[in-house]
Amino acid sequence: MHMTAFEGVSRGCSRFYRVYRNGVSMADKLTGLYPTDRAWEREGKPHPQRGVLIGGPGARRKHYDMTGLFVLHVGTATGGVWYLLTQPTNWTIWSLFIVGYLMSNFGFSVGFHRYFTHRSFETSKTMRYVLGIMGQMSAMTSVKYWTADHRRHHAFGDRPGDVHSPIVDGHGRPMGKVKGLLMAHFGWLWDNAHTDMEVFGKGLVGDEVVEFCHRTRWHWIAFSYVVLPVAWALSFGSAADIIGCILLGTGLRNFIFMNGVMGTDSAAHLFGYRRFNDDSTSTNNWFIAILTLGDGWHNNHHAQPRAASNHIGWWELDPNGWTIFAMEKMGLVWNVQRRAKSRVPLASAELSYPDVHDIPTKPSVMFPESQPAQALQDA
Ligand SMILES: [Zn+2]
Ligand SMILES: [Zn+2]
Q: How far apart, in whole angstroms, are the C-alpha atoms of residue 120 and residue 370?
């Protein structure tokens, strides 16, 4: 049907007015908060799981955060590819790329993931600050939100309530394989389900170090994307390397690492082999293990989330685990959690995926033992 420009504009205006009258802001509409879940809201169903919220200020906050970070990552990574293809590179830039990659793994994989979420070890307040701040520099939300989200991922593991799963979306609705892969990788960033901090934020909300890192998160991103690359270029190269250090040494590097982390939620829940029959569909995926320096042995991790190392088979190399053991030797961390030998690997004939159609209606909300003592009391 042909529509004149005037008809188009007037139709747009009346739609805007309807939305406005219904108390839904344009921002909600633009961020996808509203239209995608219209059907769900019409049905009037709350989220079936405790610990998950739908819509409201929390969803809006999530959308703004994620959109800002998405623009930063994709923008600088695109610039990084351009730089790589059109400009001469040198060791000043590549050394920042490599050192930065190791720092991201240290802060994010060892810090956010193995320490703040799973408490694979204990450490000093100074080290908590170091891990938290270095994790913030990889520009993936804050230690507070990420840790709460990741607790929810382990609590529900591919059942309704999971934050990011290739099997069910944020509302617990089953998905096909392709949509599932995309939703688990990054689509979940813009769905309107979000984590109830009252349930999954115990021990995080109010924690001095966590709150500091959360409050100052954009400062660390600015430090990581501007101050550090400029200082690196001027210290080890020249002013001509500044753009390369920002776009290639930082932007593209963080983008690759972020895709490794997101790949742990998508590819390492779909492709790879399973050693343990844990509740989720997690797999050991060598490609993701390379990108994340060991976190891609995700089935080993889901089977025993508190273990400091994912290393079991000789090929399942886990540099992040080595880092923790090295810090233990140096006395920087202690109470390092070892993998329980009692967890018997499956015989190959028993290897199977859980039947995702046999989804329990009320899986209990299980906190990892990693909760600080006070949080356990509150729970
Ligand atoms: Zn997982
Ligand atoms: Zn985990």
A: 7
Joined tokens for residue 161: 């309530």
Dist. CA 162–CA 153, nearest whole Å? 5
Which amino acid type is present at position 311?
Answer: H
At 278 the pLDDT is 76
Distance from Cα 365 to the centre of ligand 2, integer Å:
15
Ligand number, closest to the Cα atom of 153: 1
Environment of ion ligand 1 (residues, CB < 5 A): 282
Give me the DSSP letters along 17-42: HHHHHTT--HHHHHTTTTGGGHHHHH
Q: What is the DSSP letter of 349?
A: G
Residue 305 CA to ligand 2 centre (angstroms): 6
What pLDDT score was predicted for residue 280? 86
pLDDT in tens, 357-366: 333 333 333 3
Q: Which of 371, 357, 38, 365 is closest to 173 using CA atoms?
A: 357
Quote the CA–CA distance of 69 and 72 in Å, as a whole number. Answer: 5
The DSSP code sequence of 289-318 is HHHTTTTTBHHHHHHSTT-S----STT---
First to last CA, the chain: 58
Report DSSP state, residue 175: -
* CA 164 / ligand 1 centre spacing (Å): 8
